[in-house]
Design a protein that fits this description.
The chain has helices at residues 3-33, 49-60, 241-247, 251-261, 282-301, 322-333, and strands at 62-67, 76-81, 93-95, 117-123, 131-133, 142-144, 146-147, 150-151, 162-165, 190-193, 204-217, 220-229, 272-273, 280-281. It is α+β, with helices and mostly antiparallel strands. The strands form three sheets. Strands 1, 2, 3, 5 and 6 form a five-stranded antiparallel beta sheet that branches.
């Protein structure tokens, strides 16, 4: 190996070691100062204290690792699991942001009994580079999207919310939604996080679900879940879409208009929305999460990816907390939805 490569490898190893040491120190502090009981939601399966504790560790011990040079097609953002920093056995390994990260977060917001979900941030607020989970690559890292070999940015300008997706979800292009009349877009479920802080690319945050927009993009259903970081200043006061309109008026409308018009600078027509453009409540969003999670389960059970999607080649038995994800999302999806049943679902021609 050339001398320069030796030096680069040594520097990378040292950086990882320092990061692990910092995490270990922080984790020891957290363990000394926390006697929290395991998360227990109404109607959800009861977790043992050990299971809940183990789940919490997953959230606390991820490291973001950048590979390749920024602003090139080789640039990738990976996430590492560091079990030793959490007091667990095992070696540091890469996580698939789509497959290995649980859908349901380990801890609910302390101010609310509402369960939270793991949000994978792809595009930080106040930026415009179009990063996305590379669902067709091994370990599904985050990459900057390209078109005809050119790195893509939003020509409309910076996005004003943190944008990303929920892991272990999939909008199935083989299934036509009865709600919209269009098939899925072949991607994980999109999330718009409206909190105050900027979340970096590859960061995983627990969020509260507040509502969902049914966008139609190129004759495909492209749900946009509206959520907020569980630790945000507004999190304790926001539980549904009506709360957003009451406390942060105009936020949902701005999100809708951003997505309606963001492709116009590329010469494309405005996007449309089902349900007369209404943002549906949190209970409806939970049903969408459950449906897209069920689609994901079907995908990985097939043992092969649709088109060129990457799925776990050895099955899904090794995916941590998958049973918990399925059980909790199913329970949450059974809550009644309070919205105007007379509202037309499909987009008018």
């Amino acid at each position: 190996m050339p001398k320069a490569e030796h030096i680069t490898t040594a520097i990378s190893a040292a950086a990882v070691a320092v990061s692990l040491a910092v995490l270990l120190k922080q984790r020891r502090r957290d363990r000394r100062g926390s006697d929290a009981e395991p998360l227990e939601e109404p109607g959800s399966p009861r977790l043992s204290k050990a299971e809940a504790h183990d789940a919490r560790l997953d959230e606390l011990n991820t490291l973001v690792l950048e590979r390749g040079s920024a602003n090139t097609t080789d640039y990738r953002v990976h996430v590492l699991d560091a079990p030793r920093a959490a007091g667990r056995s095992g070696s540091t390994k890469e996580l698939s942001l789509w497959h290995d990260v649980p859908l349901v977060a380990a801890d609910g917001a302390p101010e609310s009994s509402t369960p939270t979900f793991n949000f994978v941030c792809e595009i930080p607020k106040c930026t415009r580079k179009k990063f996305e989970v590379a669902t067709n690559e091994h370990v599904t890292p985050i990459k900057q999207d390209t078109k005809k070999g050119v790195l893509r940015e939003f020509k409309k300008g910076d996005i004003f919310f943190n944008y990303g997706c929920f892991p272990r979800t999939w909008e199935d292009p083989r299934h036509t939604s009865p709600d919209t009349g269009y098939p899925g877009d072949n991607d994980p479920l999109d999330v718009c996080e409206i909190g105050l802080r900027q979340v970096r690319t590859g960061e995983i945050r627990a969020v509260k679900v507040l509502g969902v927009l049914a966008m139609i993009d190129d004759d495909e259903t492209d749900w946009k879940v509206v959520a907020i970081d569980a630790e945000d200043r507004w999190a304790s006061e926001l539980n549904d879409v009506d709360d957003i309109e009451r406390l942060l008026p105009g936020t949902v409308g701005l999100i809708r208009e951003w997505f309606r018009t963001y492709k116009i600078p590329d010469g494309k027509p405005p996007n449309k929305f089902a349900f007369e453009e209404r943002c549906l409540p949190a209970a409806y969003a939970l049903k969408v999460i459950h449906e897209t999670h069920e689609s994901y389960l079907e995908l990985i059970k097939e043992g092969k990816g649709h088109e060129d999607l990457h799925v776990p080649g050895t099955g899904h038995e090794h995916l941590r907390h998958l049973r918990r994800d399925s059980s909790i999302t199913k329970t949450l999806s059974q809550a009644p939805v309070a919205y105007d049943a007379a509202l037309p679902a499909r987009v008018s021609a």
